[in-house]
Task: structure prediction
Amino acid sequence: MEKTMKKYFAVFVLPTLIAFFIAFVIPFVMGLYLSFCEFSTVTNATFVGFSNYIKAFSNKDFLNALWFTVKFAAVAIVTINVFAFLLALMLTQKLPGTNLFRTVFFMPNLIGGIVLGYIWQSMINGVLSGFGVTMLLDAKYGYWGLIILMSWQMIGYIMIIYIAGLQNVPTDVLEAAKIDGASRVQTLFRVTIPMIMPSITICLFLTISNSFKMFDQNLALTGGGPSNKTTMLALDIYKTFYDKVGFEGVGQAKAVVFFVIVTGIAMAQLVLTRRKEVEG
Amino acid sequence: MMRTKKMQKALLIALLCGLVVVFLTPIFFVLMNSFKGKLYISDNPFAWPTGDMYVGLENYIEGIDKTGFFSAFGWTTFITVFSVLAIVLFTSMTAWYITRVKTKTSEILYYAFVFSMVVPFQMIMFTMSKLADMLKLNNPLGMVVLYLGFGAGLSVFMFCGFVKGIPYEIEEAAMIDGCNPLVTFFNVVFPILKPTVITVAILNAMWIWNDYLLPYLVIGVSTPYKTIPVAVQYLMGSYGAKDYGSLMALLVLSIIPIIVFYLTCQKYIIEGVVAGAVKG
Result:
């Protein structure tokens, strides 16, 4: 069977492969190479070694964006996961109307980042105008604005994954705990949470990597302002490429660093989930 | 005992209803303001549009006119539908081939696809958009090729995961009966893949419909092929006075198709998102 199938390589694999080379493989390899070059279009590159990386790491905007992203991710992970988990607990109590609640909480997840960003920009500015300020007056408004926006968007999504996890906890285990006289809080922390650890791992990593990769929401909500103080990594890379002339190489070097960070997060997730699977 | 339980349930439901109101507030805020005159949106953001404030469909007419919303809607639909069709068709074929034909090439391809899932778009955005220009892919059909290539990673990975679980004997029987691989794939394998087809289609549709950066960089704003996110950003990102009236109308118009789609395929969307999160 394999022999006959091999003759069909061109039909089965080639269309995907050609598109994959155009949209991924070639741009990726070129991107890696160009991060060591000075260029303005891709055809006029001259090799400059590590100088782009040195420039990237001595660039204040980049370090600020990195720090801002870490600060953002740290808080967003907590708010999103805590609220999503609490909602999931409430929605697994067999209450009437559970489906309706789930539908509403999940809905913001389907709206795109640009549209979400402008919805919240007008909301937040509307509230702030009551105090005579706007979001671009102080970076702290933008920071909390981003946290609120991201929570609004992701809580429903993460909640769905927690619900799936909670529904897989066998009821006899919960009943056994009850018969043994465990209180609700004890059951939650000693039985339920340990049993849904795989879901928790997935959710933590989803929120971390989504926080790090956030771009559209950042662009629409604050555009990075005031004076780049709310610029996150992805937006800083974009600005380095397209808002300044002559910094394409530095932009590409930043993009490679960004890629390494995101891949590192994904690898950590892989290692952790693999280990869990072996134990389980 | 029974009574306190009932009380608890009633309290939980009340709390959830309160949260529903909180979750829907931004949407109502935008809807309400879309019927308000421009000046009132910034001066009186939380007032009900009555009397002088109410302007009927003026904002909608202006917003549609300024951005060419209907054309944007058409092109977004075109790009999303054809990209999803291409992705589902070609990546399922590729996944079946590389799972069944166990050669070094298949193995390398599999890992290349998995690897591409992790790479953030910023890593390749500059080189990809330049390459797309060179290859004349800067049009809606070209976008289909790019989405197939950049979306191939997740889709091939998900199809491979499913194909591994299909018993080999069914296909072997078909082939022994004289079916060539293409006939076998479309008559035997593809129907079995249906649940994954729905998941892959939904995940990609959500991504492509809302995607901003790829169409912005490749197609740009000065062509008639703007997509909805590009049109929204174009309205707000351009210099001069910001037209919040048109923005509100445009935000409402952008959300409506998503909500309609969500309410009609809710079950599949939520299942698909869970499957995608757990595997990706």
The radius of gyration of chain A is 23 Å. The mean pLDDT of chain A is 91.
